[in-house]
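U., I forgot to send this yesterday:
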Amino acid sequence: MADPHKRLDTNSAGTFYVDATCINCDACRQLAPASFEEVGEYSAVVHQPAGERETREAYRALLACPTGSIGTAQRDTRLLNAAKADFPLLVEDEVYYCGFNSEQSFGANSFFVRHPEGNWLIDSPRYLKHLVDAFDRMGGVAYIFLTHEDDVADAARYAQRFGARRIIHRADAHAMPGAEEIVDGIEEISYRPEFRIIPVPGHTAGSLCLLYRHRFLFTGDHLWWNPETNELASPQQLVWDAEALRRSIARLAAYPFEWVLAGHGGRVRLPRVHMHKALGELITRREGALQR
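Result:
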């Protein structure tokens, strides 16, 4: 629960605020970009939400915040409940953003794919009754795909509850003891209809991407969209192997996709030709950085 006594001075005057427990994970800025921005080392409410839509988005950010760092001076219970009911939040074509980001994964995003041959959870949100009930209504969880060691959060609890098979790369498997499916090496794997597992070592030795229907690329901490610069971005720090990361990014140029759905950083949909161009520009920047 946010503490009004720790309210950051960078917040604008008004109902919503961020307090000093913020870890600057950027979940609020993704969910309510009209209200939240990065100011220094924290997020802040730079513009108080105007109207019902923006207020509902701000409540989504409040609920998703992994550290409970967003508060309100005056709560609108109707809109708060409506925002809670929005999760899992539809992205497109039976792909959903789970919300309720976990502090265990430094506030990483997680996603849910509803599929007739078994639903998928990509990385893990907090284990909450609201999400458990929602997943039950949507047909349960058959597979839990873990992009890398940092974002496993409550995956073990979801796996136990739904009898799901957890998928992780061997190099990161220490983060999920007992995982049912272990990926080895760097070769792509066609796994179940419409899903491809693509090893992308770099950020960690066992980082993985999941490509769904040649449209949706779930990238963990490997690749994301930077809304401030309008370009794809990749890790500059906390990198296991920078050259391996460059090669992994370059490998993705062989795949068609329209969506980048990241653990950290913005998600984006672009026409495939524009996405390929943006990826090519990122590859060029990474090659230039390694040469310097």
